[in-house]
Amino acid sequence: MTKPLVSFQNAGKIYKNGTVALAGLDLDVRGSEFLTLLGPSGCGKSTILRLIAGLDNLSSGALARGFSLDRGKIGFVFQDPTLMPWASVFDNVFLPLRLRGSPRRKATTAVEEALALVGLASSGRAFPRELSGGMRMRASIARALVLRPLVLLMDEPFAALDEITRFKLNDDLLALQGELGTTIVFVTHSVFESVYLSTRIAVIAGGPGSVAAEIAIDAPSVRGTAFRTSSVYAHYCAQASRALQGAKDEDLT
Q1: Residues 177 and 57 placed together within one structural domain of the fold
Q2: In 118-162, where does DSSP find H-type helix?
Q3: Rounded distance, CA 163 to CA 96, Å?
Q4: Predicted confidence (pLDDT) per residue in 81-92, tens digit
Q5: In this structure, are 138 and 170 located in the same domain?
Q6: Residue at 251 is within a domain
Q7: Burial class (CB in 10 A: 0-12, 13-18, 19+), 3
Q8: Same domain for 135 and 13
Q9: Which residue intervals of the chain are DSSP H helices?
Q10: Other C-beta atoms within 10 Å of 31: how many?
Q11: How far is CA 100 from the centre of its chain?
Q12: Domain CATH for 56
């Protein structure tokens, strides 16, 4: 097996207020996989993303990354699109390049390519208020992709969207990964979304956070309605549901 891109070893995180977010976390992130962190609220899923991104530090244990944090190797998509309302879609997507010192003219091709990847090629001049919720999330994803990151971190990005939009963005995200080969670490509360998207699911138990179970999803990378309605999908959903319930029961003991 190749060396993991990210590896947590007996990792712990305690916040200044005394909250123990993670304890004894052992978790690897492998190249080009779609890894979903599935678990209840407050179990430490978002903390794991922040640690991978270098936005926070461990209190104990070890975290190894097979890449440098200072070269745009990580993209981060939050639950809220967090777009600048006064700026156009183009300028929102341009922001990471501007912060790296790239002139606007030189960055135009990269921004336009990122917008095209998420289906917003004709929306560069629009402002966030003129977009639907799904389009704003697409713009947020384009901003994360404009540096072509090695790892894309996504913290419940589709939670606030309606079911039809969520299904469409699930399909688009899988197509994007297939095209770019980006490693994705995705946080969700949804068993159904986790099975649909993932090559592997890590079920996180809270109190404090650790890996309660791992489930490899042996299914074609190109998915759709046929997969969502298949017996294979139902089998994995049942398996993930049992693992999630087991993690919740563990929290109560």
Answers
A1: yes
A2: 133-145
A3: 30
A4: 999 999 999 999
A5: no
A6: yes
A7: exposed
A8: no
A9: 45-53, 89-99, 104-117, 133-145, 163-180, 191-197, 225-228, 231-252
A10: 15
A11: 23
A12: 3.40.50.300
Tens digit of pLDDT per residue, the chain (253 long)? 578 999 999 999 999 999 999 999 999 999 999 999 999 888 999 999 999 999 999 999 999 999 888 778 999 999 999 999 999 999 999 999 999 999 999 999 999 999 999 999 999 999 999 999 999 999 999 999 999 999 999 999 999 999 999 999 999 999 999 999 999 999 999 999 999 999 999 999 977 899 999 999 999 888 999 999 999 999 999 999 999 998 776 665 5
Helix, strand, or coil (residue 216) = strand
Two tokens, residue 190: 């949804």
Name the residue range of residue 212's domain: 1-23+33-73+149-253
Write the single-letter amino acid at 222.
Answer: V
Claim to verify: residue 196 and residue 106 sit in the same structural domain = no
Asked, for residue 79, whether it belongs to a domain, the answer is no
pTM equals 0.95
Per this entry, what is the length of the chain? Answer: 253
